[in-house]
Each structure stands twice: as C-alpha cells, then as structure tokens.
Amino acid sequence: MFGDLMGMMGKLKETQAKVEETKKRLDTVLIDEKSNDGLLKITLTANREIKSIEVDDSLLEDKEQLEDYLILTLNKAIEKATNVHESEIAAVAKDGMPNIPGMDMFK
C-alpha cells in the first residue's frame, strides 16, 4: 500500500515538473490576432502575456473606435491563447496522472 502511495506521489511530482516546463515553453508560443480589417494587430504568448500591439494611424483619429477595436481583438487573442494554454496543460496532466479510482476527470 505504501509503495503504491509513494509511487503515486513520485508520479505527481514528475507531472508537476512537466506542467511547469510546459508553462515555460508556452511563453515562447506566440498567438497573433488582428481586427477584421487588419487595422489592429496583437501578439501575445500562450500564457496570455501581450508582446506587441500595432495600431494603424487611421485608428488614432477616433478614440472610441480604437477602444472598441482593442477590446474585440484582445478578447479574441486571449481566447485563442487560453485554448492553447489549457489544451497543452491538460495533455501533460492527463499523461502524468496516476490511475486513482474515481479520479478519471482528465481522461
């Protein structure tokens, strides 16, 4: 029994280390998003850190329009990054989880 418990604890620590490695790797995965007309371009990491924002000069003339563009485009980019982030972390967690009866939520 204790051998099984120790094995599970080792597996969990190994999985935790893999999750941390995956999070670091996701800092290098870039997500690009742009507005429908291409006037605003945003790049962020899969860990949802903004790396760049490019604004066409024509958007600088209308503050409200620029704000709307930023909200819409940022939300689309964040959604994409979140999907990548969650699927990568879930894959690592699923592979590393020990077989515990009743704990099949990652499968």
TrEMBL record:
Transmembrane segments: none annotated. InterPro entries: YbaB-like_sf, YbaB/EbfC. Keywords: Coiled coil, Cytoplasm, DNA-binding. GO terms for molecular function: DNA binding. Binds to DNA and alters its conformation. May be involved in regulation of gene expression, nucleoid organization and DNA protection. Belongs to the YbaB/EbfC family. NCBIfam families: DNA_YbaB_EbfC (TIGR00103). This is Nucleoid-associated protein K8344_04850.
